[in-house]
Amino acid sequence: MPATRALHLAAEIGGPPHYDAEWYVDLVRLAERGALDFVTLQDSFGRPGLDALAVLSRVAPATERIGLVPAVTTTHTEPFHVSTALATLDWVSRGRAGWLVGVSATPAEARLFGRRRAAPAAALWKEAGEVAEVSARLWDSWEDDAEIRDVSTGRFIDRDKLHYADFEGSGFSVRGPSIVPRPPQGHPVVVADGSADPAAGTAVRHADVVLIRTGRPEEAAALRERLLARAAAHGRDPDTLRVLAALTVHLGDGERPLDPGLDSAPHTTAGAGGPHYRGGPAGLAELVAGWHGAGAVDGFHLTPAEPRRDLERLVNGTVALLQHRSLFRTFHPGGTLREHLGLARPANPYASAGGAR
Known about the structure:
alpha/beta; 8-stranded parallel barrel; two-stranded antiparallel sheet; 36% helix
């Protein structure tokens, strides 16, 4: 079915490690100029480089509208710290934070911490789901009006509006409440890979944005329908899920004419880490418009092969062409990442339950 939703675009800004904050600030400002929904910054314990969450916390005050989504692993980290760090990013960005959920699977990374052995993927993604669940509970553990800040009485907070998470996971327990007030968005946006299980099982339960990796629009459409159906089976409204195709883009070759007799549609090729597009900005715009127009996906998460070169060509070429055709917005529709994605701010279950602790 043809798409009726708005087109969503996001970009990865990682690549070779840089230790100058201005490098990342410049890239995010460039993406913001193109009105992209959000940028991601990949991270892992097995690579050199700066901490993604700390980098985007530095970027936040230097930008105004674009969403900021660092990769944060749930393995070898404390769930309470994951929750409070992401809530802090949401506060310093004034409601633009997200979270790209990651796990750490290698023995080498496990040895960096020395607390436990590497675990199978199924166990790691089960734990990731538990961390996502307890994070949501901790974000809700402060009601929105819990802060009083009454100087005359010396009361900072209404303790009746703080609540215990009381969560028991397979490998951890968290009592709470959080030490950070409820984030501006209620919950920072959760992004997860949904191409295959076991990650997809976590994504359909907890993610707001699901990334899929496939090189064909018909496969993307079928995978999207399966993900929405699985989300509904878990009691979720499938209209609250955004499915984006993840694609690495090489835009350094320019537009190339096709040989006579070949399919004229821009296409992707399989590669390490998922499908790749190689060509020019105009061809990429045709691919994006075709997939989204057919209802295969809600948008794209694009990873530039060379961050600065390809992001510039993406914004100044592909995005500009989509905007010229009125297929993509020319400005951010709101101030928060949830507003960009057309997602409502989650209600606080503690407040709706009358403040039951």
